[in-house]
Amino acid sequence: MSTERAQNVEDQAIAWCLRLHEGEPSAAEQQALDAWLAEDPAHRERFARMRRLWDGIALDAHAPELLPLRQQALAAAQAAGRRRWSSPRRHVAPWLSLAAALLLAVGVTLLLRDRATLYETRVGEQRAVVLADGSTMVLDADSAVRVRFSDDRRDLTLERGRASFKVAKNPLRPFAVTSGDSVVVAVGTAFSVERLSREMRVALYEGHVAVLRGRGRGFAAQLARIASGREPAEQALTPGHELILSEGVPDALLRSALVGDRPGSGQLSFANEPLTIAVQRVNRYNVGKPIAVAPQAADVRVSGVFNTGDTDAFVQGVVAAFPLTAVVSERDILLAPRRDDHTKSARNLPGTTGTLESSALR
């Protein structure tokens, strides 16, 4: 295709984008657009490219790094639209070319930003993000998600912590969240993924998801344990439930999701949770000395609901509910077995269970 013809095709693609931006086309205009697209694959390719750039501008309208380019692109596009019907073709072309150049600049910025964008939070911080496709993501404290979008895929990697997702429906662009050797695939749904030291958790709030796990060089459907045996996680996981995928355990554990226990809720819920896991989750919000757990107390199991960020109340509640003590050092707060004549010995602690009853715990 010659340079002049390529420019002509691009100008026509921009002109059609402008027309569609102005409102619903008439039947005659829609017929003309369909005929133009059918004439040549190059028409369809260029039009699709311009629509993607235009849509990208709309989706990221308030991104600070895109505002100047967006304003220039829209100004040039509007100028081209005004001249489209009132000026000869040779006067319209420069404005269309400027609009195309600015749209391309916006597209490159979007591509560079979304191709490998890292969103993260500090300890105690939470963050809500609207992604380029319209999906929303809420990052829990001390969490990180890397986002990589393409024309046909939406790939995210949970590098640490926990995040919830409200996925914009698009069956042609699967939304996949990877954590460790597991992948959660959704189309239009709401769910969360949490990465802990030796397990991953998937909670489903609405819709459905497929859960895959690395097997050798590929992936296979994750199986879940249910009362009647085993079944694929995609069938077993229903809204209001969560899967727990543990290292070295082939089948996932299915259980009811704890009410209110999702990023942004302001609470952490524990249901027969190993103390090490509970502490790991609490530490995401702990801006003071981190809590540590002595090996002899690692299997103590706790249940309760805790207000995020209230670390002192959590420590006090654990010490009150279990034969444990909190040893404060310059480095951390160590939860360890008490050693006296009125409590269980350290060797009897594993397997101990209880409910936290601190006044700060609800």
UniProtKB/TrEMBL annotation:
What are the alphabetically sorted keywords of the record? Answer: Membrane, Transmembrane, Transmembrane helix
Could you tell me where the Polar residues compositional bias lies? 350-362
Cite the residue spans of the region called Disordered: 339-362
- The membrane-spanning stretches of this chain are 92-112
Could you tell me which residue ranges the FecR protein domain spans? 119-209
On the tree of life, the source organism's domain of life is Bacteria
Q: Does the keyword Protein transport apply?
A: no
Under the heading InterPro entries, the entry gives: FecR, FecR_N, Ferrdict_sens_TM
Q: What is this protein called?
A: FecR domain-containing protein
